[in-house]
Design goal:
This protein is of the alpha/beta class. It has one domain: Rossmann fold (3-Layer(aba) Sandwich). The chain is built from ten helices and 13 strands. It has helices spanning 33-41, 48-59, 76-84, 99-111, 162-169, 184-189, 192-198, 212-224, 266-280, 323-328, and strands at residues 3-6, 23-25, 66-70, 91-95, 117-119, 122-123, 128-135, 151-160, 173-178, 201-205, 228-231, 256-260, 288-289. Strand 4, helix 4 (99-111) and strand 5 (117-119) form a beta-alpha-beta unit.
C-alpha cells in the first residue's frame, strides 16, 4: 500500500527553501523497518532530532556542496536534504550496500523526481569486497560487523572509503551522515584525509555495541582536529565532549552525535529548533495512504503554499506532543 509523508517546511529558512513538494512518496507502508515507523508515526516519529540537525547543517552549506549519506537505507535523509535544499543543487550521495534496500533507495529517488546519487556499496577503512551480515532483527541492522546482530545469511558487497570516493569524484563532503550499525569507527578511519583537509560536519550514530577502543581512537583524532563532540538531544545547548567524556552518554536513549568542526552558535540552535518544530508537525495525521494500484489524490505533492495544494499541518499538533518535545521547541 503506497505511503507518502508530509515534508517539513521552515518559514525562517533562506529564500527558495520551501518551494518543494509538501509530501514525499516513501513507496510502501510496511516493507522495511523505516517505512513501518513512518506509517505508525509520520516523519515526526522517525529520529526527528537527527532530521532537524541534518536540515540545519545543510541549510548553511554553500551551493553545490557535497553531502554523503552513509548507510542510507531507503534514502530518507538523502531525499529530505535533496528535496528541502534542492535550490542549492547539493551533490547528495546515498551509500547503501544491501541490494534490495539500495533498490528501494533508487525507487524513492526516481518516484519523487529527485537527483541524488545512489551507490550500492559500503564504506569502511579500506577498499575491498566484504561480507555484509543480514540481520534477523531488521534490514536496518545489517552490518559489516558479524557480531552486531544475529544472522544466518550474508552477501558479498563492494566496499570503498570516503577518501577514495571523494578523490575519484572530485567533491569532498561538507556534511556526512554515518549510520552503519557499529562500523562507524572504520568509516571515520577511511575519511582521515577528508577530515584533515576539508573538516566536514558529521552526524554519526554511536551504539553501545560499537568497539569502544576503536571509537575512542576515532574520536581522539577528531578532537585533535578541533572538533566538538555533541550528543544530539532535546535540551540545548549541547555540551562539547571529548574522547573520554562522551562514553557514559552512549547508553542513553539518544544515540546520534554531531561532530562539529566549529563551535555551535545561538543562530545554529535557533535554526535547529525551528527545523525540529517543522519536523514534529509532520505526524501520522499528515500521512497520505492509498490502496494498491490507486493514485495519490490530486495535489498530494504540490509545493508548500501553492494554490490548490492541500492544507498545511493541522493546528494544535504541538500541544499534543510529549513534554520533552514541547520543551525542545520552546513551547
Amino acid at each position: 500500500m503506497p505511503l507518502a509523508v508530509r515534508t517539513p517546511v521552515n518559514p525562517a529558512a533562506p529564500p527558495g527553501t520551501g518551494a518543494y513538494p509538501r509530501a514525499l512518496n516513501v513507496l510502501s507502508r510496511k516493507e522495511t523497518a523505516v517505512q513501518r515507523q513512518l506509517r505508525r508515526a509520520g516523519l515526526a516519529g522517525y529520529e526527528p532530532l537527527t532530521q532537524a540537525t541534518l536540515l540545519t547543517v545543510a541549510q548553511y552549506a554553500p551551493p553545490h556542496a557535497a553531502v554523503y549519506d552513509i548507510g542510507a537505507h531507503i534514502g530518507l535523509y538523502a531525499a529530505l536534504v535533496d528535496l528541502v535544499h534542492g535550490a542549492k543543487r547539493l551533490q547528495t550521495v546515498a551509500f547503501e550496500p544491501t541490494p534490495r534496500t539500495a533498490e528501494l533507495c533508487r525507487g524513492l529517488r526516481d518516484g519523487n523526481g529527485l537527483g541524488f546519487d545512489v551507490r550500492q556499496m559500503a564504506l569502511s577503512d579500506r577498499s575491498r569486497t566484504a561480507e555484509l551480515f543480514l540481520s534477523l532483527k531488521a534490514e536496518s541492522s545489517n552490518s559489516l560487523n558479524a557480531a552486531h546482530r544475529a544472522h544466518t545469511e550474508s552477501v558479498r558487497v563492494p566496499v570503498g572509503t570516503v577518501d577514495g570516493f571523494a578523490e575519484r569524484h572530485g567533491h569532498a563532503p561538507y556534511l556526512i551522515k554515518i549510520d552503519v550499525e557499529t562500523h562507524e569507527p572504520e568509516v571515520l578511519a577511511g575519511a582521515a584525509g577528508v577530515l584533515r583537509e576539508h573538516r566536514p560536519w558529521i552526524v554519526c550514530e554511536v551504539l553501545p555495541g560499537t568497539d569502544a577502543a576503536a571509537m575512542g581512537a576515532a574520536l581522539s583524532h577528531l578532537t585533535e582536529l578541533g572538533y566538538g563532540l555533541h550528543l544530539i538531544h532535546p535540551e540545548t545547548p549541547w555540551r562539547a565532549h571529548d574522547a573520554k567524556s562522551y562514553a557514559p552518554h552512549v547508553q542513553g536513549q539518544c544515540r546520534d552525535w554531531l561532530f562539529a568542526p566549529e563551535p555551535l552558535t545561538d543562530e545554529f540552535y535557533a535554526a535547529q529548533r525551528t527545523w525540529l518544530r517543522a519536523v514534529l508537525a509532520c505526524g501520522k495525521e499528515e500521512n497520505v495512504l492509498v490502496p494498491p494500484g490507486e493514485p495519490f489524490p490530486r495535489g498530494w505533492n504540490a509545493p508548500h503554499g501553492a494554490p490548490g495544494a492541500p492544507p498545511g499541518p493541522r493546528r494544535g499538533l504541538e500541544a499534543r506532543l510529549p513534554r520533552m518535545w514541547r520543551q525542545a521547541v520552546g513551547r
